[in-house]
Write a structure and sequence with these properties.
Blueprint: E1 3-7, E2 13-16, E3 20-24, E4 42-50, E5 55-61, E6 65-72, E7 75-79, E8 84-87, E9 91-96, E10 101-107, E11 114-121, E12 131-136, E13 147-152, E14 160-162, E15 167-173, E16 178-182, E17 188-196, E18 199-201, E19 204-206, E20 211-215, E21 219-224, E22 228-236
């Protein structure tokens, strides 16, 4: 399967609720685009800014792998499994909703915004027992190299575990540096999101918050045109 989709930052869905300023790379809530329902097993990629003292009240999820990456501030998570914990920059949280879970997410601070990405990935197993995990990752470990944050519960690779043969990584490239990303499976695709900076990926120029989905290329070269921070999501293209 050969597929390339470029999502310029300005074409994402957007909603400003006052307490929440959110951008959607894929259809979500009030934003619906039939061309942007999902990219393989990647269902949601939201770029959220939550005002101080605000947040998402208790709400349910089931049969979805949910990954939260905080960029700034602190997000306080509470769930029906009894966890209460703040997620801070450098930390990643994974939650397998499985048979069903309730949770809430609030800005831990009253006087500053919290900025985060939330990723939803379709699981490869339904109705699993809900689980939660969280870890701090050293930012120096992704300087000009790929740092794997998330991988499948069925393998022994680096990262927090989810119920899908997917990998989430991050790399901070100095201007002029490049890395080559090799997919673990030829049936997978790669979705890149530029957190900050400007890069060229598989010949496509990308700026801040641009997204690019690539399927059919086993190896993808990413070059930093400026100092850059890139989120890399490898997902199965089959469902």
């Amino acid at each position: 399967m050969n597929k390339k989709v470029f999502h310029a930052a300005g074409t994402r869905g957007h909603a400003d609720h006052g307490w929440l300023n959110t951008y959607h790379s894929f259809s979500f809530a009030g934003y619906h685009d039939p061309e942007r329902i999902h990219f393989g097993a990647l269902r949601v990629l939201n770029d959220d800014t939550v005002a101080g003292g605000s947040g998402f009240g208790k709400h349910p999820h089931d049969n979805m792998e949910i990954i939260t990456i905080v960029l700034k501030g602190a997000l306080e998570h509470q769930d029906s499994m009894g966890h209460t914990q703040a997620i801070r920059p450098g930390e990643v949280q994974v939650m397998s909703a499985g048979t069903g879970i309730f949770h809430s997410e609030y800005n831990h601070n009253k006087d500053e915004d919290v900025e985060l990405f939330q990723v939803w990935i379709f699981p490869d197993k339904r109705n699993v027992t809900p689980r939660y995990d969280q870890r701090m990752f050293d930012t120096e470990e992704r300087k000009n190299k790929v740092q794997q944050l998330v991988s499948s519960i069925d393998n022994d690779e680096e990262g927090l575990k989810i119920h899908q043969d997917a990998r989430i990584s991050r790399v901070s490239l100095d201007a002029g540096k490049e890395i080559n990303y090799k997919l673990a499976d030829e049936k997978h695709g790669l979705y890149l999101l530029v957190v900050e900076g400007n890069v060229t990926a598989a010949g496509q120029q990308m700026g801040r918050r641009d997204g690019y989905g690539i399927a059919g290329d086993a190896n993808v070269t990413i070059k930093g045109e400026t100092d850059s921070d890139i989120l890399i999501l490898e997902v199965p293209m089959y469902m």
